[in-house]
Amino acid sequence: GDSVTQMEGPVTLSEEAFLTINCTYTATGYPSLFWYVQYPGEGLQLLLKATKADDKGSNKGFEATYRKETTSFHLEKGSVQVSDSAVYFCALSDGYGGSQGNLIFGKGTKLSVKP
Amino acid sequence: DAGVIQSPRHEVTEMGQEVTLRCKPISGHNSLFWYRQTMMRGLELLIYFNNNVPIDDSGMPEDRFSAKMPNASFSTLKIQPSEPRDSAVYFCASRMRTGSRGTEAFFGQGTRLTVV
């Protein structure tokens, strides 16, 4: 079945460091891809998305590019801030040829940014 | 729009009691998901509905758990009887599914359940 694999955490960085969180997927169809963020004590919020190959999603300085050839959707940010400390989830939603609408999440990567 | 609304936000109950969690999805959305989040197991999909019909309930832990969606604007997740290992944060999410393309889901704030 469809699945998402993202890098294990926790990830600890200093402020202004470069961030990469790796995410790869397996899917039978042509999925849409998402990154969600969860701040402490809150629900998940959509950070960015991409719905077709080579699309780049971006928001709040974060970016991720849909790479169909490598089945990847890595999250990047050039300069992290303390306020970016949160748990980040990669997710996919089945597309053409997939199942009936499941939304599948990776295990999450906890990011801590130190001042 | 008020977003996905879950109630209660916190629930503390004694082992053996029945617990009912409630969710009001965003108006117009036709898919609804229930997730459970714990430190040990992360975010787990329990069940999801399309157009009020349960599509996949393979994530429901056991017969003590049941979920219903009697109409497009309301869903419940019931645990009877509750056990301490059910303690977790339960999230409801909804989205609009059009054709074969997957859209993003919107999450509620969650219900933190503690079974003592």
Topology diagram in text:
The complex is a heterodimer of chains A (115) and B (116).
Chain A: E1 3-6, E2 11-14, E3 19-21, E4 23-26, E5 30-38, E6 44-50, E7 56-59, E8 62-65, E9 75-77, E10 86-96, E11 103-105, E12 109-114
Parallel strand pairs in A: 2-12
Antiparallel strand pairs in A: 1-4, 3-9, 5-6, 5-10, 7-8, 8-9, 10-11, 10-12
Chain B: E1 5-7, E2 10-13, E3 19-24, E4 31-38, E5 42-50, E6 53-56, E7 65-71, E8 74-79, E9 88-95, E10 106-107, E11 111-115
Parallel strand pairs in B: 2-11
Antiparallel strand pairs in B: 1-3, 3-8, 4-5, 4-9, 5-6, 7-8, 9-10, 9-11
How many angstroms does the end-to-end distance of chain A come to?
41 Å
Q: Helix segment count of chain B?
A: 0
Indicate the radius of gyration of chain A in whole angstroms.
14 Å
Number of strands of chain A: 12
Main sheet properties of chain B: 7 strands, mixed
Shape of chain A: globular
Mean pLDDT of chain B: 92
Q: Could you list the spans of chain A in which at least 5 consecutive residues all have pLDDT below 50? A: none
Low-confidence stretches of chain B: none
The ordered string of helix (H) and strand (E) elements of chain A is EEEEEEEEEEEE
Largest interface: A-B, 29 and 25 residues
Distance between the termini of chain B: 36 Å
- Report helical residue fraction of chain A: under 10%
Percent of sequence in beta strands of chain A? over 45%
pLDDT average of chain A, as an integer? 91
Computed Rg of chain B? 14 Å
Q: What summary fits the major beta sheet of chain A? A: 6 strands, mixed
Oligomer: heterodimer
Report helical residue fraction of chain B. Answer: under 10%
